[in-house]
Amino acid sequence: MQIARQVPAGDGLVIELGGGTGTVTQALLESGVTPERLIVVERAPAFVHHLRNRFPDVPVVHGDAARLAHFLPPDVRIDAIVSCLPLRSLPRHETAVIVEQWHQVLGENGVVIQFTYDIRPLRYIAAYHPDFVICSSRIVWANAPPARVVTTCKRATVASDRPVGAGHQHSRSAVEIKSRSQS
Ligand SMILES: C[S@@+](CC[C@H](N)C(=O)[O-])C[C@H]1O[C@@H](n2cnc3c(N)ncnc32)[C@H](O)[C@@H]1O
Fold first, then answer.
1. For position 108, which CATH number holds?
2. For 18-58, what is each residue's pLDDT tens digit?
3. Ramachandran region of residue 22, left (φ > 0), alpha (ψ -120 to 50) or beta?
4. What's the Rg (C-alpha) of the chain?
């Protein structure tokens, strides 16, 4: 799956937002992202239940992406945020809060990978924060239905404004404690 190929190699965490039925979770695992490196955040209790059954080794946080920083201990490095959130249909202020969270938790060289079945050009992640810039945007025609995958990076110029947790190794146990406490 295209979305999984965009995830940078490394040992920083990969956060999937809006895990739903687990199609993207499965693709991430199949592409080599280990369960220890992955955290899935999902707001709907039924999907949380389903995801925990389907992927017993993957921490699944029952929570809202708008509070992402709250779920993570301060010493984690986030390499990638994989979002399947329906951002285009959310109220603007909700999207603004979510994008601000991404900026807060993402490591310096981290990326946000947004997946959407709405294949119109998508510029709003970058439009919501001056430190984000679109690195790639492509339609995956082989997907059924076709989908757009947009990768957004942090501008290199923000080195002085170091995000929370950047440059540290993650603590698996701390992540587990946080993830359990959310539901
Ligand atoms: C397009 S669907 C998920 C697609 C998913 N990749 C799948 O395979 O099913 C979007 C998901 O985002 C979840 N969601 C929507 N808003 C959310 C939010 N603010 N925080 C966390 N999850 C959210 C929904 O409950 C839904 O499961």
1. 3.40.50.150
2. 999 999 999 999 999 999 999 999 999 999 999 999 999 99
3. left
4. 15
Q: Considering only CA atoms, which of 77, 82, 73 is closest in space to residue 109?
A: 77
Pick from 25, 60, 83, 84 the residue to mutate for probing ligand 1's pocket: most ligand atoms within 8 Å of its CB.
84
Residue 88 Cβ < 6 Å to ligand 1:
no
Q: Which residues pair with 149 in a beta bridge?
A: 115, 138
Instruction: Spell out the residues 6+ positions from residue 3 whose beta carbon is closer than 8 angstroms to its own.
Output: 24, 27, 28, 82, 113, 115, 149
Measured from the Cα of 94, ligand 1's closest atom is 19
How many folded domains does the chain comprise?
A: 1
Predicted TM-score (pTM) of the model is 0.84
Number of Cβ within 10 Å of residue 163's Cβ equals 20
CA distance 109 to 11: 13
User: Tell me: the pLDDT tens digits for 113-133?
Assistant: 998 888 877 666 777 888 888
Report H helices in 10-168. 23-30, 45-54, 68-71, 92-105, 124-128
